Amino acid sequence: MTPAAAGIPGFRPEATAPPTVGVEEEFVLADRRSRSAAYRSLSVVRAAHTRLGGPHATPELSPSQVETVSAVCRTGAELEAEILRLRSGAAAAAAEYDCLLVPSGVAVLGRSGPPPVLDQARYRALARAFGPVVHGQGVNSCHVHVGVADREEAVQAVNHLRGWMPLLLALTANSPYCDGTDTGYASWRSMVWSRWPSAGPPPYLRGSAHYEWIVDRLVATGAAMDPAMLYWHVRPSAHLPTIEVRVADVIPDAGVTAAYALLVRALVGHAVEAVRDGERAPEVPDPLLRAACWQAARHGASGTLPGTHTRDCAPLAVSRLIEDLWKRIEPHLSRHGDDQRVSDWLSEVQLAGTGSARQRRVAEQDETGLRAVVDDLAVKLE
Length: 382
Description:
13 strands, single chain
């Protein structure tokens, strides 16, 4: 690319096709009348299959959850259209059973007594193996898959990505209320999920053989039933040629979900590039990463976080962390025309906060309180 071409506004180099990207989103089913969690997922998923196709809607651990699974996408426009399609179809299926489809990390209004576990063999086995840890695990995330064909590159790229997970959690926090109570956290979901013995930040990985050894040992000890139960914030997928970033709460809006996924794709692109250039990732100690993730869950995008993408982990304002992130991802975003979409979202987060701030604003401003929060979040029918 010539310097002149580089200076042309809107110029996009056409080097290679964009890496593949896909999104999985988990939602709460809320009763249309009470706004409390509704245990109707099997019926709703059956209806969603008719509207969306079998692979695109699944039940989850709690019968108050529905998960949507996107097709493989390449462009931002394609991805946003797919997320909108899935949300619309799942919301319509939920409406058939008097439910709202609610993108919140946990149920805003809740349950009486311990919530049930979906009556399927895998989930019954989880309940037997982990006991009360399973209670309350009806939590809802946004998982982003980015295509990385080479397994060794994917494992090494995770080392470059792990330090960014606290910031990604802070930017997507969307679960301050749980079962009718303000938890005081921005992401209560991440605190509930951290109860699993295989959850949290990944360790520093020496290579794919080291990764496989860790997985084998976790399964052998019973801390994970199988490799799919590796609940790290970022991991090589157990069944796809992708890196899967799993740290985020489900996000209120489809457009923001698409922007977040494109940011993740760019960050994975930066990490893979660093691996190919022989750049060594900082070996941030696991306790510091866990502490940074706790701080992100507690405060969201306000205040400071340890800079766990660097070796000294010095506390930095979230705005400064966003600047550091942007320097790394902007070339990858611009290459595929995603820079404006992601920049707009990051600016909005810094002005108005995350989904957790939105939930609290609605609760404070509307006399119906948390019922209004559920109604504000619920995916609207066309």
